[in-house]
Amino acid sequence: MSSELMTWLIPLPPLLAFFLIVLFTNRSKGLSHTVAIVAIAASWAMSWMIFFRTLEVEHFGQAVIENWVPWLPFGSEEVGTEALAMGVLVDPLTSVTLFFVSLTCFMIFVYSVGYGNWGKPRDLRHDLPGNPPHNGIEPLYSRFFAFLSLFAFGMLLLCVADNLVLLFVGWEIMGLCSYLLIGFWYARQYESPHQITPRQAAVKAFMTTRVGDVLMLLGIVYLYAQTGTLSFREIMYAHEGEMLTKLAATPSYIVGLSVAGLAGLLLFAGAVGKSAQFPLHMVGKYAQFPLHMWLPDAMEGPTPVSAMIHAATMVSAGVYAMIRLFPLLSAGWHHGDPLTAPMWAMAFIGAFTALFAATIAVAQNDVKKVLAYSTISQLGYMIAALGVGAYIAAAFHLVTHAFFKALLFLGSGSVIHGVEHGMHHAHAEGLDPQDMRNMGGLRAKMPLTFWTFLIGGLALAGFPFVTAGFWSKDAILGGAWEGGYVVVFVTLAATAFLTAFYTMRQISLTFLGEPRTQAAEHASESDPIFRWMLFALVVLAFFAVTAGWAGIPESFPGLGGLPHALGFTANWFHEFVGGALLEHPPAEAFDVVPLATSLVVALGGLLLGWWVYRDIRAGARDPLEAPLGPIYTLLKNKYYLDTGKYRDEATGEYRDNLYQFLFVRPTIWLSETLVSAVVDRGLIDGTLHLIGRVALRLGDIFRNYFDAPVVNGFGDLVAEVVKRFGRNFRVIQTGKVQQYLIVVMAIVIALGVVMFMPGLGR
Amino acid sequence: MTSLQIIFLATAAATLISSLMVVTARNLVHAALWLIVSLFTVAVLFVLLEAGFLAAVQVVLYIGAIAILIIFAIMLTRRVMQDTGPQTNRQWWLSALIAAALLAALIFTLSQVQYPLSTAGVPDDSLRTLGRALVDPNQYMLPFEVASVLLLVALIGSIVVAGDRK
Amino acid sequence: MIPLSWYLTLAAAVFCVGLYGVLARKNAVAILMGIELMLNAVNINLVAFWHYLTPTLASGQMFAIIVFTVAAAEAAVGLALIISIYRRRNTVVAEEIDLMKW
Fold first, then answer.
1. Domain limits of chain B?
2. What's the Cα-to-Cα distance from A109 to each of A100, A311, A367, A496, A545, rounded to whole Å?
3. Does ipTM exceed 0.95?
4. Model pLDDT for residues C61-78, shown as the tens digit of each residue
5. pTM, rounded to two decimals
6. Does B162 touch chain C (CB under 8 A)?
7. Closest approach of B82 to chain C, Cα-based (Å)
8. Using one digit for the tens of pLDDT, what is the confidence trace for B99-128?
9. What are the C-alpha distances in Å from B128 to residues B43, B61, B134?
10. Which of A108, A166, A415, A570 could form a disulfide with A564 if both were Cys (CB 3.0 to 4.6 A apart)?
């Protein structure tokens, strides 16, 4: 099968699975998961086939796989483009992305079989649809796989898209699926009215990614208006990037920004949403500040969803899009030049988000929330890397992060299931199975989970040499240092320290020490459902260890020459992915500073975290609370940068978070008071009522002043006249013949006189 | 003034007076008798006009039949109407006025006309001519027959109308 | 010679007298008598005209005969009506027979 055809086919099996499950196999849980897994396996197989094929092509960056069909006949004559085309594109970046996306999705699907308690009977008494199951099989099992398949379709479509529109379509499909999946347990309620329910979290995620998407759409439209095309190759690569230089040179509407700059910023804004950066970290698609708020609340979804969304697919999509658009974002920039506007924004926001989220993660107690903030932080890393021009490092970190973050999320899911198991055995219901303070000592109870989780955690922290995270993080730090961006470097280094610290904190609290509750005491992973989960964990752990070795820099002391000696290309990743750009980025010279820094912060953070948290008893306070004091509260409450309310520990009352106060309340006021009451009821209804009243009035006037008197009156008048006339005249008819005769004679005489009198008319 | 004229004037006066008496007599039977007198004088006028047959017919028919008939009717309806009280209705003056006006109008009109007087006199065989005209199909046979039918109808009608319904 | 106008005047006078009788008398029979007078006047007129204008023709006298006939028929029927009314309404006063009033 030709590569082009295979590329077209890659996104399709999950889509087909979605329809099949929804339409036909919904009733049968086993059939549904089989269809879904077979489909994703097919996509995985095709993706890996494409990947291995592209490995064989020399200078793949120039000889990409691309295939398109004309779609809309709107070309632009002056630019020389023809009909708007839809198509697929596999360049080096796509190839490695397909590699990890397809594998992680596949593992998540397999994991979900176990996570959904496959094999257990349906517990009709306790497990209501729309609520997480206690010990029976998930009631909406088939639906889950349907949505996962649709999600996978969206991601794969985005990966192989060759133009911005198709990318945006995939983007939006994932937005929809995030809503569907975060709110999967739609009926779940919490006692406290201020704790966000899955339903609310789903709406929140959807709404806030919207904010970013609008800006992204503006960017796409603007770009199209300026260039007449939306195809990546045409904008960024055709004619040696001629269009880009033109875009970079043309000033845009905003003073100081070139067209490329403005378009880049708008597109980045969409990504800010999706990858959850500040300030929309609650919301936007890759959740950078300020649109990051949605990501922690998206933990309300089932854990595989969290893994899918926050590791394998959705947030990666945002970064992937940015990496894909890097030539546009960096139009006009070369190594050593001052950064362009979008790049500057990315560097700033990315670095800031990384540090900001890491500080919050330190004070979180929910095992998934820690990972959520960790994701935000790592995405910040990637964005910052792009911002300083370290293209390859960003792509590298994207790949490795997907592996170890998915591993960590799935591992946490396994932990949660284990604790729930323990809860059931110890008859300790009502405990929060996700709170790390209820865990402890799980190392002995759930050994395989522990080791895989440890591998993932070490990768996240950047444990040297044997974890993938170390190599990619080092590449980013090296890139920042080499470009001379000291502030970014220092920020990222501090973040790395905090990352290691909270990771070790998490591992210690969860697995080390003694069990703090009965539930933890009885936790286990021996149940058959765990087999599926553990399988996925092991596979991902393998890649979390080895994936980093594909990107060992050639200039690294000692190990740098190892791959070459073993017969592989030296720094294969750099060679391969670097070919995706027009200008192949130069291999970095080795500098000891970033290496030393990353070793120190990683090992130091791990050590400190282990030392502080290694032996926490049940009911003990967090050791950080005392030294940090009010800062700890600030961190725990996420700097109050969110919608909704938080609970004031001191007074016990609920107060608004910042965004609630700044954005949500005014919006509600606007809609309730202004629009509804004033405009809708007052203006619109008022106008309608007025028209009604005027019409009535007019009708009355017509009736009373015209119709009744004139028309009716006239008719009545005629009748009245005739009646009066008749009534007055009928007295003539007396019935007396002689009187009639008198009249007759009188008239005859008169007539005769008139007729026969000479002189009067004849 | 010839003798004919004197006779005429006398006859005319008689006619007029008797007519006036007819319409003013209080006693209805007297009125009927005055009517007879009036009819008789009209017959005399016919004779003066050399229409002897008509005079005879006038006497026989009018006086002999109609006047008698009228007297019968008076008698049959006598009980109700007394001869006391005014015999005229309330608007008698209007009637008088109209009659007078009509008279004036008629006389005036008639005096305006120039009559084409014939120079010939009444022929001797005028009766024969009349008789022949009555039965001649080219002349007046039809009116004659129709008149007969009319009389028949009137006869039957009056019997029906005036007949007892018991 | 008696001028025609004398006859005509007489006839007109008799006619008018008869008319007065018809219009002014209460008793229905008296009205009928007035009618007879009028018809007589007509006859006088007719015969006078015949005598002075067309004495050779029979049409004048013919007309008079027809008038006689009609008068007779009408008198008969009229009197029959009066008798019938008298039987019904017990009155012969023309004014009281006003059923056809409005």
1. 1-82, 132-166
2. 14, 14, 21, 31, 21
3. no
4. 999 999 999 999 999 999
5. 0.65
6. yes
7. 10
8. 999 999 888 888 888 888 877 777 888 888
9. 20, 20, 10
10. A570
